[in-house]
Amino acid sequence: MEKKKNVIIIGAGPAGLTMAYELLKEKGNEKYNVKILEESQDIGGISKTVKYNGNRMDIGGHRFFSKDDRVMNFWSELMPVQGKNSFDDEKLGREKPLVEGGPDPEKEDNVMLIRHRVSRIYYLKKFFDYPISMKPETFKNMGFGRTVKAGFSYLKSIFVKKPETSLENFYINRFGKVLYSMFFEKYTEKLWGRHPSEISADWGAQRVKGISITAVIKDMFHKAFGSKNKENTETSLIEEFWYPKYGPGHLWETLANKVSEQGAVIKKGYCVKKLNFKDGKIVSVECEVDGKVETIEGDIFVSSMPMNDLVAGFSGIDVPDNIKDIAKNLPFRDFITVGLLVDKLNLENKTDINTLGNIVPDCWIYVQEPQVKMCRIQIFNNWSPYLVQDAEHKVWIGLEYTCDEGDKYWNMTDEEFINFAIDELVSMNIISKDQIEDSHRERIKKAYPAYFDSYKDIDKLIDYINQIDNLYCIGRNGQHRYNNMDHSMVTAIEAAKNIREGIRTRDNIWNVNTDKEYHEVKSDK
């Protein structure tokens, strides 16, 4: 019998856990011993759910939707989708369940809810649909003068295309300069700390994909004629998505338990510092654990750790100086979120969507107001009422910020930053100070891989890493690519297939989410 190969997976986020599951899912596994090394004490990476005083925070908001059926099937097998009338259906005014025969979330915990997606832009103290819609209300809020200018600007963008050498040109080509200036320029600069003219258009190709005025109009026609489906709908235009009852972290914790039952060993608090090479291959990793160093040997290594930390940890191999420089200077944006428990919001629900407590129906509110640093507001009640201890009488919100580790915002004390965030919210008249009951702050390092500085040379780094025969890079930070959860999972699915079948190329792994049409690599490629 062939000796089992020791597979070392760095990171217990969506990519790392999916990788373990894919390698161990066959009954009677006789091929792999799997160890997952997780730096923190949490499961799920940035997709974890933070528990605080009976309430739960989703770090950044995670919609469970994919155009890849492998991922949708994976999720639904792990957590069945709701079916019977429930707290959700009855309280939110649904006459009948959206899925027949599924579990009742009032009675069971491992359940996916079906959620209605509402995300709007808050600008000029008014709501605009996100993505921008062609509704009369949009033009009313913009005003006649802005609407006319935006219309002529968009017409110009149809006939005069700019070279897509930057994110700025990418947006202008799809929306025209006026709408770009209103809804993208300042927000993007706030999000990344750089002007869109300094950011690669690759970010737009991966995150905004096919969204444009034309795509919005097409979506309106598909909806009007009843032909809208998963295949012809851009990801940013979906109207419903799945969501775990207790947040995304609950699903990844469920998967972690499953892979542990399959035989995987998950080690928390293991920070990988070195990857030791011999004869051009990695033979072991050195981890910092409780102030001590522990060496773990392996045959195959799968990394979802940031690429700059990965290359900085290479030991026993001569890494070319240009490769070191590219890896070292790959940029990230760090993330801070503040949870606030309030009696109510000052925002009125003027939509026709019924909500628990009649609060505004938004999952996210994109904050375009240029005078504040805040990027988005999450309303956790609308992701799942089960995230909130008293969802019928309280509103639990998340205030999202980006910054750079070590800057003045990162270094503020919890009290200082929470007060700063509250003042911004009050200045927009979204809450009053006397409505606040509780608060909590979370900081996340390297939450967003960024597309400037040495990113322009990342292909050289990828080519170098691909020469290492027993190393596979997967996930958001593992590929320095702003992937959604499903894309991160697909990189793991493809990498596992290559390991199982002895496929030497890495192209199928790196090609996930690289084109402008929400690309997935099918299993037969």
Describe the protein's architecture and organization.
- The chain is α/β, with parallel strands linked by helices.
- It folds into three domains: 5-45 and 251-330 and 452-510, FAD/NAD(P)-binding domain (3-Layer(bba) Sandwich); 133-237; 332-449, Polyamine Oxidase, Chain A, domain 2, CATH 3.90.660.10.
- It contains 16 helices and 20 strands.
- It has helices at residues 14-24, 69-78, 87-91, 136-142, 144-159, 167-192, 202-207, 213-224, 248-262, 307-312, 321-328, 380-383, 414-427, 458-465, 485-501, 507-510; strands at 5-10, 32-38, 49-52, 55-58, 112-116, 119-123, 126-129, 240-244, 265-268, 271-278, 281-289, 292-297, 300-303, 314-315, 332-342, 364-367, 376-379, 395-403, 436-449, 471-473.
- The strands form five sheets. Strands 7-6-16-17-18-15-19 form a seven-stranded mixed sheet, with helices on both faces.
- Strand 3 and strand 4 (55-58) form a beta hairpin.
- Helix 1 packs parallel to helix 9, helix 1 (14-24) runs parallel beside helix 15 (485-501) and helix 5 (144-159) packs across helix 6.
- The radius of gyration is 23 Å and the shape is globular.
- Mean pLDDT is 88; it is low at 84-98, 219-226, 230-236 and 516-525.
Features:
single chain, 525 residues, alpha/beta, FAD/NAD(P)-binding domain, Polyamine Oxidase, Chain A, domain 2, 3 domains, 20 strands, disordered C terminus
What name is given to the CATH topology of the largest domain? FAD/NAD(P)-binding domain
Gap from first CA to last CA: 30 Å
Which structural class matches the secondary elements? alpha/beta
Mean pLDDT: 88
- What proportion strand? 15-25%
